[in-house]
Amino acid sequence: MEQELNDNAPRFSPEALARTEEIFKRYPPEHREAALMPILHLAQREFGGWLSPEALDYVARFMKLAPIRVHEVASFYTMYNLKRVGRYHIQVCTNISCWLCGSDAIVEALRARLGIGFGQTSADGRFTLAEVECLGACVNAPMLQINDDYHENLTPEKVVGIIDQLP
Ligand code: FES
Fold it and tell me: For ligand 1, is residue 143 a contact (CB within 6 Å)?
């Protein structure tokens, strides 16, 4: 499989390949395709935080699946980014608990600070702003996620402070 890829095609690092072996062990060998979601997640981490068409094709070859099967999974779940995202992917929950606790003001503070709206990336490539459904942290609403980290019990002032402290 590897020889068929051109030099610029995405491919897993040796560390990621070792990780795939650990992932496959979680599933019965006759259902290797069940590992598709964690493999896509790994690919997204490996390939810059998003899944390009080339990355999806690579995963399809790697999993020995038809490309359409990989595309349909990657396009169904919102945790897979099919467009390039900034260095900081800010996902703001606007679902009911967060909305009741003030997510509108959080969104407004982010828009004013970053100069971008939902679905947009700042011109310097640092920030992508996304609106998401419940992230399961309703008890500490309103909240948002930046890359892998949750930030909870937010106020507009807090969220601006968090943004300004990012390296
Ligand atoms: S509604 Fe926002 S985390 Fe659940």
Answer: yes
